[in-house]
Write a structure and sequence with these properties.
228 residues, alpha/beta, Diaminopimelate Epimerase, Chain A, domain 1
Length: 228
């Protein structure tokens, strides 16, 4: 299923920043929000599919040589030709090359390339990218290790929440399910900014419960929405 394109305007950025500031005003948590166009190109998966297409062409010629060779003779207007081993090998190489290139070119269309990627692999790579961004932008960058990342990858239609040690010790990952559900619902409607605001509000409510804001608390991470 191809979802409609999503757009983030200045109003979206301001709304997310305001939601982060409000959430952090009630807790010691530090929320980082990132929206990425994609987390991975999956060109290796496209290469695999192309190789499989080429292999299938060779397998078909190997298993049913008479069928394919007769079709070639018919297309060329030849009577039953005497195919030599060299000619058969050349035909197999040509067929495999054409199939490989055709499959590769088809997958230059990103929606098709992504559609051919298993969901589990999309999830794993989006999660890996989210963790990488978290390690760079939020992990161990707060005094109480209360940083948390809300990450959305548009191309893969996947979102992740990654929390620093202090939060992870107190809050089970499944607690973030409501925030994720609110985010995904708005994403499907083509409103990523609104979805991020909804997720921030729900994450903020959990943080306020477990990590209430202290009088001397200060803002340690930027509130702005990071768009990649």
């Amino acid at each position: 299923m191809i979802h409609p394109p999503v757009h983030l305007g200045e109003a979206d950025h301001q709304a997310v920043s305001a939601a982060v500031a409000a959430a952090e005003g009630q807790s010691a948590g530090e929320i980082v929000t990132i929206i990425a166009g994609e987390s991975n190109s999956f060109h290796d998966v496209a290469l695999l599919w192309s190789a499989l297409a080429g292999f299938a062409a060779l397998a078909g010629l190997t298993l049913f040589p008479a069928f394919y060779l007769s079709k070639i003779d018919w297309l060329l207007g030849n009577w039953a030709s005497d195919w030599s081993a060299q000619h058969v090998l050349a035909l197999g190489l040509a067929a495999a090359t054409v199939k490989f290139m055709a499959m590769w070119l088809l997958q230059l269309w990103k929606p098709l390339r992504l559609a051919l990627v298993p969901g589990s692999l999309k999830h794993a790579r989006v999660r890996d990218r989210a963790v990488r961004y978290f390690k760079v932008g939020a992990e161990r960058r707060t005094h109480g290790r209360t940083g948390i990342l809300i990450y959305l990858s548009l191309a893969e239609h996947r979102a992740e929440i990654v929390a620093d040690a202090a939060i992870a010790d107190k809050v089970s990952p499944d607690v973030w399910g409501e925030a994720m559900a609110a985010l995904i619902t708005e994403i499907k409607a083509g409103r990523p900014g609104t979805g991020m605001v909804a997720a921030v509000e729900r994450v903020g409510a959990v943080l306020a419960q477990h990590f209430p804001r202290a009088d001397d608390d200060r803002n340690e991470l930027p509130d702005r929405l990071i768009e990649l």
